[in-house]
Structure formats: structure tokens, C-alpha cells
Design brief:
Elements (H helix, E strand, L loop, with lengths): L1 E4 L9 E5 L3 E5 L6 H17 L12 E2 L9 E5 L3 E2 L13 H18 L11 H18 L17 H14 L8 H7 L8 H17 L10 H11 L4 E3 L15 E3 L5 E2 L6 H7 L1 H5 L11 E5 L10 H15 L3 E5 L3 H6 L5 E5 L4 E4 L2 H8 L1 H20 L4 E5 L2 H15 L6 E5 L3 H9 L8 H4 L5 E5 L1 E2 H7 L7 E4 L7 E3 L4 E5 L6 H4 L3 E3 L2 E2 L5 E2 L11 H5 E5 L5 E5 L3 H7 L12 H13 L4
Parallel strand pairs: 3-11, 3-12, 5-10, 10-11, 14-15, 14-16, 16-20
Antiparallel strand pairs: 1-2, 1-4, 5-6, 7-8, 8-9, 12-13, 17-23, 18-19, 19-20, 21-22, 24-25
Length: 601
Amino acid sequence: MIINIQNNGKILKEKTNLKLPDFTILTGENGSGKTQLLEYLRDYGAMNRMMNNFSDNNLISAISDNNGKILKDIIHSYPGVKRSDNLHFQQQHQQQLIQTIKDQWKKLKDIAKSCLLIRSESFNNEFDELQALNDARIEFQKSMTTENTKLDKAKFIYVQQYELNTLKLLSEQTSKEIYDLTLLDYITFYNVYNDLFSSALDVLFHQFNLKQKYFSHLTQNISAPWIVFNDILDKAEFKYTTKYTASLDDEEPTLIHLIDRESGMKVSFESLSSGEKTILALIFVLYNSSNNGKFPEVILFDEPDAHLHPSLTKLFLDVIKEVLVEKQNVKVILTTHSPSTIALAPEESIYRMDRTLGYPIKEDKDVAVQNLSSGLASISIENGNFGIIYNINQTNKHILFTEGITDKIILEIAWKKLYDSKEIPFFVQDSFSVNFLGALFNQGNLKPDGIFHQFPHKALIALFDFDNAGYCGWNRDEKFPSIIESNPSKCLTRSNNKNGYLLLLPVPSESNIRNLVIKNGQETFKEKSNLTIESLFLNVPGFAEKYFTIESLPGGGSFYSFKAKKRKFAENLEILESKYFENFKPLFEKIEFIISSHNFK
């Protein structure tokens, strides 16, 4: 699919012809604009539907397929797989949906019949039409009163615009005049919302059955919802199925139950877990009376896994990918904050909403999982420390901590290339993520388990990429108040005035790499910098084209975004000549200086 984003005055920035996979999983930090993007696409989809009488050339194409066809039939759901467009007619929890529909029709029926009073009139606009209808209803009621039963205008119930619009839409759907509409018509085309769960399934199936009987042209070449429902359950290897028997009473749907495949017992929807309900609720996105049982062109899921247990995540993703995307050609954008969702997602589907750029960019799966684990970092410190503490205890060397395993691999290769047989004077300890590393050092002064207290005789050095996450991990002026190196080319360095040090990658002199960090002289872009450890190899012949893409920045400028698999990239560096590792010399020199110039006893 292709999306075109316009500046919304908040986070979203203009970006045209942005190609995304048909199944895109969008991650990013809180406040990065994920929800804004989905709402933007939803709103422009609604605008395009309203402008349907115009040619496609006049429409704003917020989202299209790869052939340029504008996609207008868009469904947007918020956490828990609920529709975001439920504007009226809220269901009372204790009331069956079918009864709600009947109660609503009692009032609408009276309005529909009163449209006979103005059937021969024409109007310039909706306001004039509504005014004429209410005036006619008042005059009619006056004609039915006597001197003793005089009409009290204060008690007169006026028709509202949304009520008249509801009847107009139903008139179009049934090809009937408004005053000829019936309860059966209203039941058949009632707009069922995703959040009306078990009773909605009863009505949903019943609606399709009514369309088959009375509006058969609307169901031609369309699979019945109960067939699709079970097809999804079968493909997902879910433990429930269902059976549908058409009701003999057109005004009363058959009660639907799930059947446990193993026991054959009936199971109520209310007894399902929230995760099971989330999976089953996909049906309400697929088959909804508002779209006559057809699949939408686009579904925008805003954190559908919010109430989903990780054990059901793969099942959920498989249903979306295999049934929606691959079989029905639906375009899907799904936002998530769940590391397990990202870990189980297809690599090519993972994108990150970049707050600075204002649009999505490709993200490495490992990096996405690490970033989403930030909220777990402090919780994981205790367990994660077991391996780290063991490694520190096993070596007499000082410790250099990296954000991840690929950084460790790269640094060890770089040392070997630059210094050949010289023994590396420090031990490289990888962390689970940049956030874990930041939390580990931020808690380092806590007694008795902080690493600075456990190992006061060792230099403990944290190395961060000079990018958004890395700079935020480094910029801890309360716990690390002393800046002992202010030259970006020599590794900006903070100290806790004891044995803890925070380093940022050195900024090379090559202009294309230097421009990722340096604004002017030694002034940096700080948290808006874009220097990763992989970027230090940008000038290796062919690397920029093979491993990076150029991303535009709002207001001009660009930066290199790493697009390859980090582990494979790191391991392949073994074949490079030593001259391509020169950018690491300032880093190693800084580490050796720290180790040699301080007394850790």
C-alpha cells in the first residue's frame, strides 16, 4: 500500500508516496504519533467516501494500493478491537441488542410515517427539510386535538437531524420510500458495532439471513458470516466452533453459542477470556451490517493486543495475516506496544513511527523488541544482573557495557583489526537493550545491589549510540554530573565522580557521518542526532547503498537509516581491512585513558 501524509500541526509531517507492506505493524514510543496517523487515515477515508460523486482525481489520496487505486472503505478500531465510530445508540448492558433495535424503531417508525406529510415538497437543504417536517408534524397533531386537548408545544418531541438521516440511509439501502420502511428493514440494516459482543453476533448472522431472503442481490458472491467465522477459527486452530440455524421468526434472531471442539459442550461468550474475545471480535471488523457483509479495503487496528495474553498473540497475527491480508487482500496497519507481538511478527512488516520525522520508517525486529522492553528494564534488572554479575566476577578487567550483542561483536572485531595481537584491556559486556543499559547505570548507586557499590574497584563504562535513545540514556546530569570530555570527536563523556562513566560514540571527521550529529563546530543535535555504531562504516565502499536508506528530515536535511540485519552485518565485518575501523580509535583511546588515569581500589 502507499500512504500520503500531510502535516497535521502536531506530530505528523508531510510525506508522500510512502510505500508500506500490506500488513504493517507500527511500533514507537508513547507520543510518537501512531494513533494520530491511524486517525488521519481514517478521517481522510471518510472524506473520500463523502466525496464519492467526484472523480478520483479530485480526492485526497491518503492511502491507496500499489496501483494507485484510492482506498476509501476504511475501518478504524481502538484498543480491544472496538469501533471508533459509535456515535449514538449506545447499548444498555443488561438489554439484548435485538430489543434495543426494536425500541429505537418505535420512535423512528412514527417519524417515517410522518414523512408522508411532506412527500410532495422539495427543499434546498437539510435544515429546510427538517424544519418543514417538524412544522408539518405540529400542524397534524393540532388537527387531531380539540379545545379540551390543546397541543402543548413545550411537550412536543422534535425530530432530530441524525434521526432523519438514519431513515434516509435506510431508504437508500432498501430502495423504499421512507414512509414505507418497516421494522424488518431496520433490523436487516442496523449498524452493528464491534463492541456489542455476544448479542451482536446473533444479530449479525440474522441480518445476513434476512438479506438472503429479502435483498438477495446484496449477498451474491459473498460468503455468509457464519462460514467465514468458522473458517477463521479453523485456520487459527482455535478450540471453538459454532453452528448457525436460521430463525423461523424474522424479528427474532437465533441465539448463538460456541461449541468446544473437544467436549462438544456449549460455551457462552461471557465465559471467554478477554484474549479469546479479542480474537473472536475480528469477525465484527470483517462482517458488519454497515458494509453489507463485504470485507473493508483497509483496517486500522490501534493496539488490538491491548488485552491479549502473549500466548494468543501468534494466533491473533496469523488470523490477520492469513485471512485478512493474504486471502481477502485487506490492507492492515496495526499499532502495538507489545514486545511479544513484534517478536512474532514478520520481519518485513515492522515499522517504527518516528516522532522527529513525523512518519513511519523501517525498523529492525531486534531493535524494536529492545525498545519496547524499556518499561520492563527496571523490573528485569534483578534477573538480568545474574548473568552480568557473574561475568564481571569472572574477569579482572574493567567493564565496557554496550547496548546489545551486535555492538559487542563490532567492538571486539574493531580492536582486533586495529591492534592485532594486543590484548584488549577491558571486558565487553552486552546488555538487553539501550533502555536496560540506561536503567542499570541509573540504579548503579543503589545500596546494596547497585553495580557501582558491588564493584568499586572497577571502571564501569556504558557506551551509547549518538542517536535519540542513546543520547537520552547518556544525558543523566543528576546521577552523572561531571562532563569530563566535551569534544564530540573524542567521545562525549559523563562521570558520577566515582567509577561510573557514560560515553557517546565518537563523531568522525567525514562530513557525511559528522553531519548526523554536528550542527555547527562542536554543537550537536543532541537527542535529534542519528549516529549509530553501524553508521561509522558509511564510507566503506558500497555499504551506504547496501545497508542504509536515506530518510528526509522535516524542514530539510536527511539522515542514513540502517536497514539490514544487525547480527549478520556485524559478523560480516571480519573481512574488512583495518583502515575501515579507524573511526573506533578515539573510543578505544578514551576507554584506555579512563582505565589508566584513575585508581580503582
